[in-house]
Amino acid sequence: MSAPGPTARRRRRAAAVTAALACSALLTGPGAAAAPSAPPAPAAPSPSPSATVPTLDWSPCKPGSPWDCATAKVPLDHAAPAGRTIDLAVVRRQATDPGRRVGTLFVNPGGPGGPGTVQVPQNYDAFPKELRERFDIVSWDPRGIGNSTAVNCFDTTEEAKAWAARPPGGFPVGAQERKAWIDAYEDLGRRCEKRDPDLLRHVSTADTARDLDLLRRSVGEGQLNYLGVSYGTILGATYANLFPGSVRAMVLDSNIAPQAWTDGAGQRDPRTTTFLRMGSDVTAAATLDRFLTLCGSAPAARCPFSAGSPEATRAKFDQLMQRLRERPIGPWTYAKTVADTVNSLYIVDPGWTALAGRLQELSQGREPKPPVYPPPPPVDRPNPYLGDEQAAAVWCADSPNPRDPAAYHALEEDSARRAGDAGRFWTWAAEGCATWPARAAARYDGPWNTPTPRPVLVIGTRYDPSTPYKSAQAMAGELADARLLTNDGYGHTALFNNGSSCISAYESRYFVDGTLPPPGTVCRPDRVPFS
After folding, report:
1. Is 264 helix (H, G, I), strand (E, B) or coil?
2. Is the pLDDT of residue 341 over 70?
3. How far is 124 from 240, CA to CA, in rounded Å?
4. Cis-peptide into 112, omega within 30 deg
5. Cα–Cα distance between 14 and 1 in angstroms, integer?
6. What confidence tens digit (pLDDT) does each residue in 199-208 have?
7. HSE on the CB side for 299, CA within 13 Å?
8. Which residues are CB-contacts of 264 (< 8 A; sequence separation ≥ 6)?
């Protein structure tokens, strides 16, 4: 999932944010259109044997860059490989110890909406050293996203900016803002339907899994080595069940439960959203509570927002939210601050410390300073357009969500009773799907238990603000053969938030020689936040 519920304004800065945060951009409040109901999705077609394996003509992304770039041409519709083709932007960093090279490791950094050509180079140093030494690391922008043939529903940058200013920041508060939000995403869907309706029907997870198999063949690998985080886990599970014999090693980190993604068998009238089925609201609330507990247990020198105890710090946060409801501080409304809080819980270092600083500034009535972003990675197109419609095109067409915009306010109140402020945020993150105009032409709804040559390694984090630990348990249970590795830590994804040398060691050993951690293995972070 690219960062939870970010707006188009935020997601366009993908080159400047960490991959795990952009990973939550996959969890965005997607666009909308006016169709009252979506037609049932047809069964995913079998892969066509006549699809041409793309040729990757690698060259340095920029002069002197360690990253190579290439473009792959793949069928828009894998059931009609002789028809229209689309482009996939691909990047590669060759193994730094070629004498000990094992093969190619494909990485999807999340989303949908995460541009791998930007996020993976941006976060290359987060990969365990042994993986960088022994694998060519390859990523790509999935169809519909970023530098590939992308969903873009605006004629000009100005039009896109004007639309992005319409939805309230974070989520809507009150009837007037709810109407503005719903109207904006309904308009986005109408625009998208006019621009390229065929593309909207062919950006499913199954389509991307078929692209991935062509990319595997294009680099000469007999079997796939794959690391998928967040949304990349449902992509990996789809690949493993469409191409089970082609899996050499697969790690799924911070999982979406398959049944949550499909709503069982992809019912026509889902009662709740993908995020609420997953439990994103409850896990975000638990992670926020852990943040406030650890912050309150630390002195202010280590956590600026600390009020001296966990109880006092929780009360301080609740009081701040109430004050912001009544009196925003500059652009910092209650909803914007909740959204910023959930997003900032993705990355422990520096995310949690920076969040504590912003909350403290707000508690003292001051507008926080704007964040400082890292420089763009050494690739030729580090800042692609990443409007909300790109995540929506995948998410809304592939995963069932309620089709009645009026249902979301009641869902919000129900979630808020379970999960407080985070429930309001996560409910509205999916509302744009209510009126999204397209359904995937080739959607994969299961089964999920097709045997693979080797077990899949599934990693789940206890305190994850978007993909709950129970989703990793569900993924491990639904796959034919999987081993669950527990990260008893914090944040979204063990890879990009990897403060655990234990996780790194098990991950590396599994990719190199297939060794799995013992059943029931629990890893802990090298350092507890604010300690």
Report:
1. helix
2. yes
3. 25
4. yes
5. 13
6. 999 999 999 9
7. 1
8. none
Specify whether the CB–CB gap between 71 and 90 falls below 8 A.
Answer: yes
Is residue 429 a contact partner of residue 343, using CB atoms and an 8 Å limit?
A: no
Residues 447, 420 contacting (CB under 8 angstroms): no
Per-residue pLDDT tens for 345-398?
999 988 999 999 999 999 999 999 988 888 999 999 999 999 999 999 999 999
3-class DSSP string for 153-208: CCCCHHHHHHHHCCCCCCCCCCHHHHHHHHHHHHHHHHHHHHHCHHHHCCCCHHHH
Q: Following DSSP, what letter does each residue of 410-453 receive, concatenated?
A: HHHHHHHHHHTHHHHHHHHTTGGGGG-----SSB---------S
| Residue that the structure tokens 């095109």 belong to | 393
CA distance 83 to 92: 28
Q: Sign of the C-alpha dihedral, residues 508, 509, 513, 518? A: negative
| Structural tokens at position 58 | 């690698």
Q: How far is CA 310 from the centre of its chain?
A: 30
